[in-house]
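INTERNAL TRANSFER SHEET
From: sequence group
To: structure group
Subject: Stage 0 sporulation protein A homolog

Please process the attached sequence and return the structure record in the designated field. Keep the field labels unchanged so the import script can parse them.
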Amino acid sequence: MNKILIIDDDKELCALIKRSVQAENIEADFCNTGKEGLQKLREQEYQLVVLDVMMPGMDGFETLEEIRKEYSLPILMFTSKNDSISKVRGLRAGADDYLTKPFDMDELIARIASLIRRYTRFNQQAGAIQKLNFDGLQIDLENRSATTSNGTFELPPKEFDLLLYCAKHQGKILTKQQIYEEVWGEEYFYDDSNIMAIISRLRKKLEVNPSSPKYIQTVKGIGYRFNKEV
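Return from structure group:
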């Protein structure tokens, strides 16, 4: 059974989320500080983390950065209503999705299920083809990592999923809608910030010159294309 970790200083909300996801056959643990969350991650295996931005002591961003140093599991962040700065900062730091408070519990459960399903599906796909090789780039499907001259990077779920989707369609122009609906599994509402944040993170890791990318290239006004010449 899938199991998630909820890190939020609102104890009543944590308990409510736990009861709600258990009704959907998803186990859950919760804790109220980032430090406790990191300890639980080291002690047990989880398929997803739900993380609040605003917490005393180590806040959500610091916790996110520490998690990403060790783990590549999906992370869904809670942000305040209309707090676009926190949203973008979280996505750039490695969050896979976000939800603004207050939120609808059914939407939260749907997002959790979608992230777990996609993470599991992409892991299962690694069975047949283990690695994709390009000029200066190797994508390891089994370990969900990418290697370039910059080093080897174990990629967070959305980064890996987006990279793999583009690479599998090498040379084809992919619209932002196509990318979003494939990688996030949700209807596209013309908000480019998620896609842009993840592509920015990928370029910083994989490219020698991120401002002139060799691999995922921008097609102005349309979307992106994985370079057919590599």
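Handover comment: The chain is about 40% helix and 25% strand. The first strand starts at residue 3 and ends at 7.
Transfer complete.
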